Amino acid sequence: MTRRIVWTLGVLTSVLLVLAVVPLAVLMTARERVAYRDNQRAATRVIAAAAEEHLSDGKPATAMRQELDAAARAGDCAAVYDASARLVASTPCTAAQGEEAAELVGRVLSGNEPEPPENEGRLLAAEPAGEVRRPAGAVVLARSAAPLDTRIAAIWGWSAAIGAAGLAASVLLSVRLARWVSRPLSTLDASARRLGEGALDERADVGAGPPEVRRLAATFNTMAARTEALVHGHRAVIADVSHQLRTPLAALRLRLDVLATGAEGDTAAELAAAQEEIARLSRLVDGLLAVARAEEATPRPTVVRVDKVVAERVAAWSPVAEEREVRLTASDGPALAVALGAGHLEQILDNLIANAVEAVAAGGSVTLDHRAAGHSARVLVRDDGPGMTAEAKAVAFRRFGNPAARGTGLGLAVVHRLVTANGGTAQLEDTPGGGLTVVLDLPLWPERGHERGAASLKSGRNRTAGP
Question: Is 371 helix (H, G, I), strand (E, B) or coil?
Answer without folding.
Answer: strand
